Amino acid sequence: MLREGGFPSSIRTCYTASFFYRDVISLSAAVPPLLMIFFFFFNSCLRFSSFSLSVYSLRLRMFGLQNIFDYADCFGKSPPIALAGVNSHARECVERHNDGSLGCKITSGDYGLRRLFVANSSDAAQLELVSWWLERQRDYPLHITVYFSGTESLNDISVWENFSQRLSKSTVEHTFELAVEGIESLPHFAVLSQWSEGINLRKCKLTTLEPLGGFEQLSELQLAYCVGTFSLDSLVACPNLTTVHVSYCSGVTGVEALDKLCHLKNVALRSCDITNVDFLKDCHMLVSVRVPGCEGLTSLSALSGLQKLTTVDAWGTNITEVDSLSACAALESVCVIGCEGLTSLSGLSGLRHLRTVEAGRTNITEVGSLSGCLALEYIGVVGCKKLTSLGGLSGLQKLKVIDATCAGITEIGSLAGCTSLETVYINYCEGLTSLSGLSGLPNLKYVDATASPVPRDEHPEGWSPHTVITFADV
Q1: What are phi and psi of 293, to 5 degrees?
Q2: Spatial separation of the C-alpha atoms in residues 86 and 377, rounded to whole Å
Q3: How do beta strands 104-107 and 401-403 pair?
Q4: Based on CB atoms within 10 Å of each CB, which residue in 98, 186, 370, 463 is the most buried?
Q5: Which pTM value belongs to this model?
Q6: Where are the transmembrane segments (predicted)?
Q7: Tens of pLDDT along 421-469?
Q8: CATH level 2 (architecture), domain 83-264
């Protein structure tokens, strides 16, 4: 029988001891010599003392493990609760294990160190069994992710509301992330949403987002495959939103409201009905903009001058130029795959932090305009039939991968200065007849020339003897 506040300490200690006894036996397979020593010390301690945490401290000294992390790593799955029960340091070590303990895991991220607890809403009945564990430590904030699926899961909401109240009474700092699928009413989540940092709605039937308005804790909202007509206007009342992702929601409107979110850092609008991104021009904190599949989008001009922008993904849009990105000095990654109206990458010239360019299935005719992008590591020009040469890239000393599969190249051009180049894909390049442009590349490891009419005996000067070339015919 559980009482308010969790298991009595004596019961918890006995429970802990039994698990410790069991799991040391499993550990003995990895550390056989220790098993006999363990039984000797364990039985001696039980003869002269009660089940106390000092016994488990002795267990650690017995094993000679100065670093409890090493002990925890001996377990492929979640380490035994006994180890975590030794003291607060041991608990932290166990909860840093990949599988954590009792559903808890300590991680670090944008929010710093915190304790994560993940559960399905239907686990509410078993929640009492681990409540004492969640309430024991307050050294890190607790972040709880709960999955609700289907209308029947709405019956579980009150249990999680009560759980939140219990944590508050125990002065446990906590927040929620709600992952909700297949429901038709948001008002039911009004109370939990007040404590939520993130809300993920998938395959829900929506008519309004008003129930989400006004929650200051909310920093991330994701909507995917939701049906119904609804507007993003209500998000203006969520002043601390940093991430908004809308994917495959054909009925969404009011995207212009995003310009009122001054802390916005990440925006993803996948397959949405937009023609421009003018509503983002004043979002100066933006780090990532993803608008793949927005076929009506013709311009990225509003992104010009966003100094913190590092990622732009405009896959499958109808943009015709990237000149507007030239002033985005922090850009690291640009994806314009499938933008058939794009004929030049000249707008990217001089972006010194640019590391990745994916421009496959576009109508570009040259890549020399990337010569000033000194940080480039990857260039993808798959299926660019109008591209005839890879020339102009010789000064890119950090370039590691070039993927020109199915491109129209007839000559590689000199890449001798690309001293870090490791992998080149020139397969299915029907007009390519020589690999001479790959001379002088000491770090080249792999060249795929499958189905390209390149002489089989060609081995350019300066290659490592370990370089692998694939000529397989198809």
Answers
A1: 75, 5
A2: 48
A3: unpaired
A4: 370
A5: 0.81
A6: 20-42
A7: 999 999 999 999 999 888 888 899 999 999 999 888 777 777 777 788 8
A8: Alpha-Beta Horseshoe (3.80)
